[in-house]
Amino acid sequence: MTYDEGAMSSGQGAFFERLVREPTLSDKAANMILETILSRRLTVGDRLPSERELGEQFGVSRTVVREAVRALVAKRVIEVRSGSGLRVAAVDAAAVSESMSLYLRSGTLDFEKVHEVRRLLEVHIAGLAAERAGDEDVERLAQVHKRMVREVGDIEAAARDDLKFHRMIARATGNELYLVLMDSIGSSLVDIRRENLGSGPTPSTLEQHARILDRIRAHDPDGAEEAMADHIEGVASWWRKQPQPLHEQRPGGASA
Amino acid sequence: MTYDEGAMSSGQGAFFERLVREPTLSDKAANMILETILSRRLTVGDRLPSERELGEQFGVSRTVVREAVRALVAKRVIEVRSGSGLRVAAVDAAAVSESMSLYLRSGTLDFEKVHEVRRLLEVHIAGLAAERAGDEDVERLAQVHKRMVREVGDIEAAARDDLKFHRMIARATGNELYLVLMDSIGSSLVDIRRENLGSGPTPSTLEQHARILDRIRAHDPDGAEEAMADHIEGVASWWRKQPQPLHEQRPGGASA
DNA sequence: TTCTGCATTCGGTCTGACCAACTGCTGTAT
DNA sequence: ATACAGCAGTTGGTCAGACCGAATGCAGAA
Predict the structure, then answer these.
(1) Which of A167, B122, B128, B148 is paired with A253 by a 20 to 30 Å CA distance?
(2) Vertex A18: Cα angle to A61 and A81 (nearest 5)
(3) DSSP assignment of B86-112, as one string?
C-alpha cells in the first residue's frame, strides 16, 4: 500500500495548492474565485464577473484567470458559456464519478477489492430500497425490467438497462449519495457488465433481477438483500472464470 | 431529486467534452493528451512532451495546450514541475476525495443522508478490520489512541488524531477503496468532528474508541461493528442536539 | 574523477490583438 | 403599442511573441 498519512484533502479551504511547491498565480486565482463564490453565497446558475474583470480584481493577467477557470471547470465548480459568461455550476454526481472512474482505471485496485465494496453497497441499497421504495419507484423498476426482458439480443440496450435497473434501486433509497457512490464504483464495472451480458441478458441475470424486483415490491428488506447478494455474487463468480482480459483500456474516439 | 437518467460518465473515452456545446480546442487538446498517455501506455512518473512540443504536434498554440494542461492537472491526471516538464500523475485517492468533498459541500445533501452512508461504511469497515487487522495495524491504532488520550485540551491535535484513528481502521481492512470512500465522506464531517471534540476529546469518545480498539484487537468483528455503531451514533445524536450551525462554510485562508 | 558554471529547456506570466458567439438596445415596420 | 430586424458592445476562445525564474545537462576547470 502506497498511501499513508497525509493526502486526505481535509477540505478546509485552499484546494488548489500544489503538493509541495508553492502555488502558482493561477492556483491562487482559482482559490480566489472559489472564495468569491463561497463568500458571496453564489449558487448554481449565478453569474461571475468576466475574465477580464476578475483579472483586474485579482491584479493578474487574463491568461492567469483563464487557466484558473479551466481548472475550476475541470472540477465542475463553474461552467462557461462562450459569449455569455462564467456561471456557478452544480458540482454534481458526475464529477465525483468521473474522478473515481479515473482513479479506478489507473489500475491500483484489483477486481476483488472493487467487488467487495460494490457488494456491500448494492446489498445494503437493495435492502433500503425494499424498505422505502414508493409505488412509482417500483413501477419504474418494473418497466425497466420488462423492457430488458424484451432486449435479448441487443447487447447495448441490455447493458444500458441493466445499469439503469441498478441505479433505480439506488434511487429508490431516497438518498442520492448512494446513487453517486454506485455510479462511481459501478462505472468501472460497466465493461464487465457488458461482457457479462454477452449476447443479451442471460436468463440467470433476468431471473435474479426479477427476484430482486419482487422482494422490493413486497417491501421485504432481507429478501431483497439476499437476492441482490446472489446476483452480485453471480456476476463476480462469472468474472472470475473469465480469461482475465483485465479490461483493456482503449482510448475512446474523441472529437476532433 | 434533480438527477436522473444520464450523467453517469460511463468512463469510456472522451472525458473533457462539454455538456452541450461543441468542445473547445483546449478540450480536444486535453483529450489528445489523455490519449497520448493511454496509447503509449505511460505510467505514473513518465514524462510527456513539453508544452511547446505538444502544441506543435496538435497544431495549436501554447495557450491552448496550457489550458488543457491546467484541466488535466485539476483532475490529477498529470503533474507539472516548473523547469522540468509534465509528468503522468497518480490519480490518487485525494482527487476523488476532493471532488466528493466539493460535492458534499455544495449543499445538496443534508446531514442525515451523509450520516446514513457513513454509518454503513464505518461499521462495516470496523468489522472487516477486526477480521483482518495484522499486529502492526493494531499496534499503530493503539498508538494513535494512546496519544489522543494525552491530548485532552489540544483540540486541533485531537481532531487530527480522531480522523487518523478512523482512517487507520479503514486501512486495516487491506482494501484501499474503503479508505478512499472514508476520506471522501468523512471530509465533510471534519468540522463536525472538530466541534464535537469541543475542548478536547470527551471521555465518551475516548471510551468508545477504546472499545473499538479492544474489539479489533480481539478480532471480534461483531463486537467491533457494534462498538463502531455506538460511536457513530453517539456523534450523530450529539450533532442533532446542536443549534444547527449547518456547518457554515468559510473560505479557508488561502495562500498568497 | 569531481565540481563548478553557463547555455539550454521548460513552465509561469504578461501584453495586445482578433474572431465568433451571445446579449441587449434601438429603430423600424406593422 | 407591439414585434421584429439589426447593429453594437460584451464575453469567451485562440493566437503570437516576449521575458522571467527554475531545473537540467553538458563542458571545461580543478
Answers:
(1) A167
(2) 45
(3) EEE----HHHHHHHHHHHHHTT-S-HH
- At residue B106, what is the residue type? S
Q: Indicate yes or no: strand C within 7 A of the C-beta of B183.
A: no
Contact A252/B12, CB-based, under 8 Å?
Answer: yes
Ranges A76-85, A187-196, B200-209: which has the least confidence: A187-196
Q: Has residue B121 got a pLDDT over 80?
A: yes
**What is the nearest CA distance from B94 to chain A, expressed in angstroms?**
6
Task: Give A 221-250 residues with CB within 8 A of chain B.
Answer: 249-250
Q: Which of A47, A212, A72 is nearest to A129 (CA)?
A: A212
A215 within 8 A of A223, measured Cβ to Cβ: yes
Q: In this complex, do B116 and A254 lie within 8 Å of one another by their Cβ atoms?
A: no
Q: Which three cell numbers stand for residue B160?
A: 487530527
Judge: A8–B108 Cβ closer than 8 Å, yes or no: no
Residue B15 has pLDDT above 50, yes or no: no
Q: Which residues in chain B have Cβ-Cβ distances shorter than 8 Å to A165?
A: none
Start-to-end C-alpha separation, chain B? 39
Average pLDDT, stretch A125-147?
Answer: 95
User: Would you give the end-to-end CA distance of chain A in angstroms?
Assistant: 39
What's the CA gap between A192 and A244, in Å, rounded?
11
Residue A33's H or E segment, with its range, is: helix A25-39
What is the distance between the alpha carbons of residues A183 and B10, in angstroms, rounded to a whole number? Answer: 8
Which residues lie closer than 8 Å to B183 by C-beta, 6 or more apart? A8, A9, B93, B94, B96, B97, B167
Cβ separation B8–A97 shorter than 8 A: yes
Residue B253: closest CA among A75, A64, A23: A23
Indicate yes or no: strand C within 7 A of the C-beta of B64.
Answer: no
Phi/psi for B79 (5° steps) reads: -140, 145
The dihedral formed by the CA atoms of A45, A46, A49 and A54, expressed in degrees to the nearest 10:
-80
Q: Which of B17, B51, B42 is nearest to B31 (CA)?
A: B17
Grid-cell match 462505472, residue found: A187
| One-letter amino acid of A39 | S
pLDDT of residue A193: 60
- Single pTM value for the model: 0.78
What does the alpha-carbon distance between residue B108 and residue A150 come to, in Å, rounded to a whole number?
37
The C-alpha atoms of residue B150 and residue B212 are separated, in whole angstroms, by: 18
pLDDT digits (tens, 9 = 90+) for B89-106: 887 788 888 888 788 877
Taking alpha carbons only, the member of A166, A6, A132 closest to residue B116 is A132
Cβ–Cβ contact B194 with A under 8 A: no
Which three three-digit cell numbers place residue A165? 435497473
CB of B122 within 8 Å of any CB in chain A?
Answer: no
**B82 is near strand C: CB distance < 7 Å:** yes
